[in-house]
Amino acid sequence: MRENTPPASPYHNDDEELVYVGDDIDEVIEHLEALPDNEMEDIDEEEDMEDDGNVTPERDDSILTFTKHTSALFCCNFSTDGSLAVTGGEDDKAYVWATDTGDVVFEVTEHKDSVIAAEFSYDGAYLATGDMAGELRVFKIDKNYKKVWEFSMGDMSWMKWHRKANVLLAGSEVGEIFIWRIPSGDCKVLQGAGDKCEVAVFTSDDKRLAAGYGDGTFKLWDIKNQQILLNLGPDEPSSSDENEEVPPPSITTIATDNENQLIITGGVDGSAKLIGSNGLIGNLSIPQSSSLESFPIERVLIDCPGLEFKVAVTANLGGKVIIWDVAHQSIRNECKDEDASGVTTMIWGKEQTIMAGTLGGAVKAWNVRNGELKFKLLGHANNIHDICYHEKKNLLLTVSEDKTAKIYTLPL
Questions:
Q1: 81-109 in b/e burial notation, b at 16+ Cβ within 10 A?
Q2: 75-118 pLDDT per residue, tens
Q3: What are the two backbone dihedrals, phi and then psi, of residue 185, each rounded to the nearest 5 degrees?
Q4: 342 neighbors 316 (Cβ within 8 angstroms)
Q5: DSSP string computed for 30-63
Q6: Which residues make Cβ contacts (< 8 Å) with residue 305, sequence separation at least 6?
Q7: Which letter, b or e, does each residue of 38-72 get, where b requires 16 or more Cβ atoms within 10 Å of its Cβ?
């Protein structure tokens, strides 16, 4: 994965002597032929790993694989009826394609940086795409994907549609949150304080926005009036070594409940906090003796649909997925997984199911009541970066570092 500019190759050495094979090529060939078969296999495996880091999965459970992208994929979304998917990635492109055939319907080629957000509007009228450099584009779908709006906002961290209106929001690297009415482009700005707006999630009434920032600050915004309803400052960083520089506890994941009463946040310091309308309620803290604290919280969930009691879920890059009893702020279950791998993304599924994309490329699903593993889907050869579920069609869309998108029919 790259940032705004690709990093230099870690394998490059300016002092390394270049070897040219000319008249000695026969000696080189003889040397390779003389190696034992197992050493030749090791060489092949090392070359493959240097090329892309992919590992061949045991099987492919997907029903369709989309292969038009030429680099890692970062984002995905279903159209309202599930007939289309949009994917975006490091090749600076977004593709709209049919979920039954994989045929390309539309290609966005105007971006000059990695496409990190691509999403259909709530009514299926528009498609929005955004890249790391903050170039945003909106296309009218029933007008043959005619571009109807564009904007350049500076480096962008996230972008999403409002869930009940054709209003587009995006967070910036300097903390501002832009709100546009589409297609007019009328704009409001929720002011930042210089720290990156890492993540934002609507409350269930879609009138408020819960936002987390790079310095660990949490803000609850009234979108219509552009007012801060709640502002929680970051915790003071602690360290046993006074000279040790401790990074701020950036908030990188947020979830809101169904009654507009509770919000859960997760941070790079491994902390998860419960927040109510009046402030901090408590911490979902892992015991100090546990090694779990050394891993960032990558995703959080709260208020499982259809469950009669309130739970929260935290998942970290160490592969631990924990189900919490919200009322008692205590661990209810730890999701079982003999082959634990770091969680990169996580969503609710139907029938009280937790679904997660993981490092290594597997999709895993657990029963929220007892933490038992329901199923594991294979097919990707590298880390999964995003997943999207279409409940009516029971389809899961995944995108990966391995340059592919896949569609699975879920065993639910």
A1: ebebbbbbbbbbbbbbbebeebeeeeebe
A2: 999 999 999 999 999 999 999 999 999 999 999 999 999 999 99
A3: 85, 5
A4: yes
A5: HHHHHS-HHHHHHHHHHHHHHHH-----S----S
A6: 258, 348, 350, 352
A7: eeeeeeeeeeeeeeeebeebeeebbebebebbebb
Task: For residue 37, give the amino acid letter.
Answer: D
C-alpha angle 194/199/205, rounded to 5°? 120
> What is the tens place of the pLDDT at every residue in 121-174?
999 999 999 999 999 999 999 999 999 999 999 999 999 999 999 999 999 999
Single pTM value for the model:
0.84
Long-range Cβ contact pairs of 51-56 (< 8 A, separation 24 or more): 52/382, 52/402, 52/403, 53/382, 53/401, 54/381, 54/382, 54/402, 55/360, 55/361, 55/381, 55/382, 56/381
Which residue in this structure is represented by tokens 């070359």?
Answer: 47
CA 175 from centre of chain: 19
Closest C-alpha among 397, 295, 318, 309 to residue 355: 397
Residue 11: CB atoms within 10 A of its CB come to: 7
34 contact partners, CB below 8 Å, separation of at least 6: none
User: What is the Cα–Cα distance from 99 to 268, expressed in whole angstroms?
Assistant: 35
Count of C-beta atoms within a 10 Å radius of residue 267? 23
Token pair belonging to 261: 């009463």
CB 169 within 8 A of CB 159: yes
Distance CA 166, CA 289 (A): 48
Contact 221, 209 (CB under 8 A): yes
